[in-house]
Amino acid sequence: MSRHLKSPVHKVRLTSDPEELFRNVDRALYQNDEPLATLGSVAHYLLMEHARELGITVLLTGQGADELTCGYLKYLPFYEQDLLRQGRLFEAVRVGAGFVLNGTVWKQFTLAEARRYFPRMLLPRMVDIRGPRLRDCDSVLAIGLGSEGLVARQAADLAQFSVPALLHWEDRMSMAQSREMRVPFLDYRLVSTLLPMEPEWKLRDGWTKWVLQRAMEPFLPSQICWRKDKRGFTTPEAIWLASDLRPRVERLLAEPMLRRRYAQYRHQSLRWPSMRAQDVLCPLLLELWARLFSSSLSNSPV
């Protein structure tokens, strides 16, 4: 894409050195003012810091495109489930076969990621790290297809599950460096056009985001427009948790149940993992946030 636009690329290095990484985690937590879910916000903070050094004030982001045009892998099983509910068995088989033959998003499937959408009875057992006050609370949020179909599930991502949190994190990290993020895919005219569009225009011929890719085909090189190796704004936290960060993480996770969950994560099958990095990282980042704001939390009413 850089060659196509004849524009230079400015790279930012996210180190796995524990001391430097956790310093940056504290900086990102302070600016976010609430717990983080991944190290992606740390990477975004460093990206905005570098943009400031380069004198770049306004940046574009693609937030909302995947939710509007079914870019994530989860939308394909949701669509298949929706078709089966409508009794469209042949259509469900045809759609699924198209993605298998095209070799696109099915390559991204992992049991650990899919687990979030399983019925509770099918969820793999994990070490319960909830304290006594939360032990009896029902903390499982239903994020499956729901009863109203795929378009309604997309709308839920835009309004509740996905986009609001992502926009919050992006805004906090960019504003920390006085940078402004623009979100063209969330323009109300695009949302009102793309969201109600029938799913067959979004998941088609073995492609996600089909209608968007067809629209952009005249303006982009084919290998960019129709690339199969979709990648998000991700960090290698799963690898780091099992290697470089292990000594520091074990010191931070002082509670026995947290240590047991971390051990369960490290000893799982690398080929078919049943736990995500977030199953360890989320409580870890919550702990770091609580330590950072401990003086304020200790004075809060119970």
Distance between the termini: 53 Å
Residues in β-strands, percent: under 5%
Query: What is the level-2 CATH architecture name?
Result: 3-Layer(aba) Sandwich
Which geometry do the CA atoms define? globular
Descriptive account of the structure:
The chain is an all-alpha fold. The chain has one domain: Rossmann fold. It has a two-stranded parallel ribbon. Helix 2 crosses helix 3, helix 2 crosses helix 16 and helix 5 runs antiparallel to helix 6. It starts with a helix and ends with a helix.
Show the helix and strand layout.
Layout: H1 2-5, H2 18-32, H3 40-54, E1 58-60, H4 65-69, H5 75-85, H6 89-102, H7 111-114, H8 150-161, H9 163-175, E2 180-182, H10 188-194, H11 210-216, H12 222-225, H13 237-241, H14 246-252, H15 256-266, H16 278-292, H17 294-298
Parallel strand pairs: 1-2
Helix pairs in contact: 2-3, 2-16, 3-9, 5-6
